[in-house]
Amino acid sequence: MTAYVYILASDRNGTLYLGVTTDLPRRLFEHQNGLTEGFSSRYGVTRLVFAEQHARIDDAIVREKQLKKWKRAWKLDLIEESNPDWRDLSELGLF
Prior knowledge:
Blueprint (H helix, E strand, L loop, with lengths): L2 E7 L6 E6 L2 H9 L6 H4 L4 E8 L2 H13 L2 H11 L13
Antiparallel strand pairs: 1-2, 1-3
């Protein structure tokens, strides 16, 4: 089963949210339409700026836990390696 580790941002260098899911389009829809209570809706974190695909959910969960321990600067570097303009990847139709 394919799984994703993803990072949402409120804006460039803004508030970050890190999550894991097996259905990225559905999860994005929930975040972007305020269907999830909590951190992402409270802080307006709806822009998909990073996503990483994994073949197994347990691998994705391990990676998510690893990234959550990273310093903020490292997370920003990770985003900018693949998305230097901080474009919303969901608007590009990639997910």
